[in-house]
Fold this protein.
Amino acid sequence: MRNRSPVAHPIAATTAYYLAFILLGLTTAVTGPTLPALARHTGSRIDQISLIFITGSLGYMIGSWIGGRTYDQLPGHRVMPLGLLALAIAAAFIPVIQDLWILAAVIFILGFAQGVVDVGGNALLIWVHGAGVGPYMNGLHFFFGVGALLSPIVVAQVVQATGDIHWIYWFFSLAALPVAAWTWFLPSPSLREKTTSRSSIPIYFTIVFLVVLFLFLYVGAEIGYGNWIFTYTTTLQLGTPMSAAYLTSAFWGFFTLGRLAGIPISTRVGPKKILLADLIGCLLSLGLIIVGARSNVTLWLGTIALGLCMASIFPTMLTLAEGKLHITGSITGWFLVGSGLGGMVLPWVIGQAFMSIGPQIVMKLIFVDVLANLIILVIIARRFNLYDKSLNPNPTLEKTT
């Protein structure tokens, strides 16, 4: 691994990561609202254009894996700007492509760039702030939520003003360039070295696998709910398409609000307690929706509560892992590969079950997924306790983290 100088301006670096994650949220959430226009541009049906979700997810997972290994070898403030540049180039081409397969290939490149930026923001932030990363990590993912929340609004305003989607993607492309330039000229943070002997290989890789599995399940639930709540609502006639759209916006809006609230909470409450409370809250919210399956009121209440409870799970798990493990870019990459795979698998399973069983299965599948997440959290907590004891067999000499 190449030597890197310590970051000279942590606030400047953190601000650059936050801006990058706003762009990440904008470009991640833009595909859905622009899907009909992209189908028109390529002469495709909606079921055909959905191919881009698969290629985008594959690109994201490969970008996360390769990006994670690259951040361990090269200065991070060289790698992330290149990811942002690739994102800008891909976004610039998307609205003018008229062939579905070429569009799918460019969306793959966009997903690859998003994976590089995503793993970089998470890993570099940990290297900059170390054990105090908790509130900064929640802030990072809050700004992703801001981007995801603003994206549909930008789409609506630009389409209303211009009649097409070209300037949406071009605006995102242009916005990525100054962020890339800013990051390029900042000193890169060093991968932090642990002073303790956290090298118990069987426990270490078991924990990494469990965290990957946890993130796989969590992101599957988050993306599954966010993608299917509209169709669930309209199919069961619990609302009009307009109110279903507002319900979807409410989920992401309170999700973003929950990430904002997670910043001060993370400075006062330990990550294990936060995760336990969040997952129990998710189960109660989904249980309310399942019990009141025909009630529009319980659907709205459950959706709002679910958005709030889901919000801080991802950054809090990363914070918990950072407090116990020697987090490298490669490990962060595997975390994001797991989350990317989860974002593909459960939404697809929901779609198959939705057609064969019925819309009610949506909430039941997500409930089972979150319940499995809770079980994995308990196992992770037990493993971390064993890990701490292996590093510090005499707890009276040193407190475990």
Remarks:
- Confidence is low (pLDDT under 50) at residues 1-5, 194-203, 395-401.
